[in-house]
Design a protein that fits this description.
There is one protein chain. Helices cover 57% and strands 3% of the residues. The chain is mostly helical and 133 residues long. It has 2 domains: 95 residues, no CATH class; 31 residues, no CATH class. A two-stranded antiparallel sheet has the order 1-2. A hairpin with a 2-residue loop joins strand 1 and strand 2. Helix 2 crosses helix 4. The radius of gyration is 18 Å and the shape is globular. It starts with 6 loop residues before the first helix and ends in an 11-residue tail after the last helix.
Length: 133
């Protein structure tokens, strides 16, 4: 992994990053590049499998991205994340520690609370938040 200075460089080499096509301030298609078809196919397949494993951080990432961007882009995002994980596992020589499906919510508790309040208010409920004793 010493060939790549960061995980972002590896993901860019593997063509698992969104493209940047902008001209005159107007964003166009952000398609990913072609890249190595075997690596890309393997990562997409691994991303699909990870979306079906319950209670994992990768499945939670898939659901978060799918909500905003759609199914196919979410699978590419999960494949990108798997490639980042592989970079750090090989670089540091340590096993992968599963963070759990609620890792993001624990890390950003206020953001998760605001999102849940907005969802309840959209359903017609009035919500007041108080800290638990």
């Amino acid at each position: 992994m010493s060939r790549f200075p960061s995980a972002a460089h590896l993901c860019s080499w593997g063509a698992m990053c969104p493209g940047q096509n902008e001209s005159a301030g107007k964003r166009r298609s952000g398609k990913t590049r072609q890249g190595n078809r075997y690596l890309r196919g393997t990562l997409v397949q691994a991303g699909l499998a990870a979306t079906r494993s319950n209670g994992t951080a990768l499945q939670a990432r898939y659901r978060r991205v799918k909500r905003q961007r759609g199914d196919k882009k979410a699978i590419i995002a999960v494949g990108h994340h798997i490639l980042e994980i592989a970079y750090y596992v090989m670089r540091d020589g340590r096993p992968y520690d599963e963070l759990g499906a609620d890792y993001f919510d624990k890390r950003h508790a206020e953001r998760a609370a605001r999102r849940h309040v907005r969802q309840l208010e959209a359903l017609g409920f009035q919500v007041t938040i108080e800290k638990a004793a």
